[in-house]
Design goal:
Length: 461
């Protein structure tokens, strides 16, 4: 069994809402603080998800690049012995001269990727596009981010463009760095429901794998989503290219939050209006499963095992973060770490757990749609303009040095494990999860996919 590593990550979303970009690196101050990297090395971190974003480097013209920021920081990371996993687009739609659904997105990002590889040929790991399925959903299916559409056809185009951008980018990078590895990130989720909404849960529980299924060349004409993709704009020839020329990840990066498990219930009166969703067939509540009584959560270990058993590829938790008190943040990371180790013990090739949002995040409680400086702390609190370690820093340091973390705070259950977590009761007993074979016919006939996730929040206990 491989040793489980602790990685770090910096929230770096460069998200476009309307004509305005929300830039986390500027808001958390890391853009201006070089010595942040020394503080991360002091924690003992050896691997770091790190941005070299297309929107920062070529904001106005694809042929005019500004390398001043990475030219200082990437060599410093190298000096400190930290290996960066380079992100090129992070919940972005690219610079203003492109967008997720436009034809020049994939080729444009590949051009940026090639330039990055040429300039920094010692780099080894890349995430060209962070969470392509999630970004396509939030941008093109729910309308939260640019281009603010709410239709399946634009969603399919945005998803396929991002995956093509990933494939072309890795080809361009590997011409220069043949051993370069793809660390492909995506949300690690599961949807629960009442029996009446099991068709929607079935659909979403299969859709959650779509990025990886396409990259791995698994979407054949017999695949449950082949017909959906064809119906909403993908050509047969386009889908065939993924069978002929797949781009499987070297590491599956799985991002998990307490809001990643959802519960669907047709009885809206049991929930708040902000939980309202509509798939075009019926109106229902879409709520965090952790807040609903009698729901048996899948949990991180089970979800990791699902990913491992489906693909047999190395997996890592590439984001683990909780917006809550410092104590609960420590309990959450400690819980995720132990769940990852449990998956290892069950035979999964789990490589690492990533403590996300090292410098905290801004306005994720509104999915970046409002700029009101709603700040969540991370391993450091940056509100003073300087790094102030939180309790998480002690835990990260222990994990990075292979030391057991013994502290009274982890002797208590997290709020998500206590009875007080429950705010709602389901209208009927939740449906039991189905195995894949049992849902084929229903999912083939069900293309319901549109619903509102405006309230994907982390509620404090």
């Amino acid at each position: 069994m491989n040793q489980l590593d602790i990685w770090g990550g910096i929230e770096c979303s460069h998200c476009r809402v309307g004509d305005t970009y929300s830039d986390q690196l500027t808001r958390n101050g890391h853009w201006h603080r070089l010595d942040d990297l020394d503080a991360l090395a002091d924690l003992g971190l050896k691997t770091l998800r790190y941005p070299l974003l297309w929107e920062h480097t070529c904001p106005d013209n694809p042929d005019t690049c500004d390398w001043a920021w990475p030219d200082i920081r990437l060599p410093r990371l190298r000096e400190l012995g930290i290996n960066p996993i380079i992100g090129l687009v992070h919940h972005g739609s690219g610079p203003r001269y492109t967008a997720l659904h436009e034809e020049n997105f994939a080729t444009g990002l590949a051009q940026h990727a090639a330039r990055v590889a040429e300039r920094y040929p010692w780099l080894t790991h890349f995430t060209p596009v962070n969470e392509p399925l999630t970004t396509a959903r939030f941008s093109a299916l729910y309308g939260h981010w640019y281009p603010h559409t709410a239709d399946d056809r634009t969603f399919v185009r945005a998803l396929l463009n991002q995956l093509e951008a990933t494939r072309l980018s890795m080809k361009a990078i590997r011409k220069i760095i043949p051993h370069a590895q793809l660390v492909q990130t995506e949300d690690l989720a599961q949807v629960h429901s009442t029996p009446a909404l099991r068709y929607q849960a079935d659909f979403e529980n299969l859709r959650r794998w779509l990025s990886f299924d396409l990259l791995c060349g698994r979407v054949t004409p017999e695949h449950l989503f082949w017909h959906y993709l064809r119906e909403h704009g993908a050509s047969e020839a386009e889908l065939q290219t993924w069978l002929d020329d797949p781009c499987p990840p070297d590491v599956m990066g799985l991002n998990h939050y307490l809001t990643s498990e959802r519960f669907l219930d047709e009885e809206m009166n049991n929930y708040w209006e902000c939980h309202a969703a509509n798939n075009g067939r019926q109106r229902y509540a879409d709520v965090e499963a952790v807040r609903v009584g009698t729901i048996k959560m899948a949990g991180v270990c089970s979800l990791l095992m699902q990913a491992w058993q489906r693909y047999k590829l190395p997996v890592s938790i590439t984001e683990a973060h909780l917006n809550c008190t410092r104590e609960e943040q420590v309990r959450w990371l400690h819980y995720v770490w132990n769940e990852a180790k449990a998956a290892q013990e069950q035979g999964a090739d789990v490589r690492a757990v990533t403590v996300w949002s090292l410098f905290g995040t801004f306005d994720w409680d509104s999915l970046l749609t409002r700029n009101v400086d709603s700040y969540e702390t991370g391993v450091f609190d940056v509100r003073s303009g300087q790094l102030r370690p939180t309790m998480l820093a002690k835990l990260v340091r222990h994990l990075a040095h292979g030391q057991k973390f013994e502290h009274p705070v982890v002797q208590s259950l997290g709020w998500w494990q206590r009875p007080s977590r429950v705010l709602f009761q389901p209208s009927t007993a939740p449906a039991q999860p189905r195995v894949l074979k049992a849902v084929k016919n229903r999912v083939k006939a069900t293309y319901a996919s549109r619903h509102d996730e405006q309230q994907e929040l982390e509620y404090a206990a």
